[in-house]
Model the fold of this input.
Amino acid sequence: MASVTLRDETATGRALAELPLSGLPERISARELVRLRVREEVARHNAAPSHHFRGLVKPADAEAELNGYRMRAARRLNWERQADAAEAAFARNGFLLLVGDRQIEDLDTEIDLAADPVVSFVKLVPLVGG
Done:
């Protein structure tokens, strides 16, 4: 069994948050890892629902804040809906997935957690301009 640290980073590499997970298989697909991350963060939120959610993707009817998302009302989230949204965000380059020194470009890519115990998620912010 492997342990992994899921790290949220800025585009410049500055760590924003970390989520350690243990008891994982040594090899896992990127898709399974993304869904596992989302399931874990939603479970933590649902244990004590609040107006604020710190997670990979924005829940429906929420507004982006500096370190997460603000929901109109404290509520429980559906992890499968959030995981589907995370997969869709990955497909449209909403975030990058970095393992060691390589970027994962396909969610079906297998990751060796024993060799690379840190996986970085880099959220990309759309540029606004005129």
The beta strands are 2-9, 15-24, 27-29, 52-53, 62-65, 68-71, 95-99, 102-104, 110-112, 118-123.
